[in-house]
Write a structure and sequence with these properties.
Arc Repressor Mutant, subunit A, mainly alpha, 4 helices, 105 residues, 3 strands, 48% helix
Length: 105
């Protein structure tokens, strides 16, 4: 199936995650999962962890500020859902994209 609309612009990820998932403790059974893309991880890292403005994060990732804002909103929603409902957060992207973006710094 072909994607509609404009092709997705490559995002620059300067530092990949050191782990690929977070799991809640104290919840019996196997919790459900939510998936956070590598671009969502990077926007959270730049804006919330490092304290950069959305404009500075956009410049770092090589995308527009509006794109960062949209990615950030989605990433925060995913993280909030996982915290409220006790779900596993899996950070994922194709390994090929991650390697290409990290090695191009």
């Amino acid at each position: 199936m072909r994607r509609r609309g404009r092709p997705k612009k490559n995002r620059v990820v300067k530092q990949g995650p050191s782990i690929s998932q977070f799991s809640p403790r104290g919840k019996p059974g196997r919790p459900d999962e939510v998936y956070l893309g590598i671009d969502g991880f990077e926007t959270i890292r730049l804006t919330d962890y490092l304290g950069l403005s959305q404009k500075a994060a956009a410049d770092s990732m090589g995308v527009s500020q509006q794109t960062v804002s949209r990615i950030l909103k989605g990433a925060r929603r995913i993280i909030a859902e996982a915290i409220v409902k006790g779900k596993i957060i899996r950070i994922q992207d194709s390994q090929e994209n991650l390697q290409n973006n990290i090695s191009s710094r």
